[in-house]
User: What shape does this take?
Amino acid sequence: MLPESRPERESRGAGHVPPDWVAPHATFFLTLNCQLRGKPQLTCGDIPGGLFQAVAFYHEQHRWWPEIFLLMPDHLHALVSFSWEKNHGINRVLADWKRYTARAFGIQWQRDFFDHRIRNDADHQDKWSYVRENPVRKGLVETYDQWPHVWFPDRIGWRRDGSGGRDRSPQRSGE
Assistant: This one.
């Protein structure tokens, strides 16, 4: 029998810490959503450049180690590793980054985020492909490399030199 009322949902808070057996600097697949779904907040005007500058700044400060950040109009996906030192874990870093980007760019983020720890190479490949193909699945572009709102540690955009170089997707052996 269900209770007549449900307790207020609690935020992840300090309790969202990986168990001791999770390797340091494990990679996480992340999704951060805007409060207003369906409204393009992240891909308009100068917002992508500002968000990518904030991603790069946190990377340079060793707050996180992102492989990829892909902006969609109302959410983003990323593959990121974090330090588990005090005040540098996933909760603190994402809360700080969301707070900064909310103030700097007026983005209204949802309170929490979705995360999934990458467990093996196949899982990594699946999540990378999910991130890469998201704009295609949503009908925003015909091929993933047409989507401009993607950040890598060494560049913005899919191509290294702007002339059609190979993308950075991890490949399974034999492909």
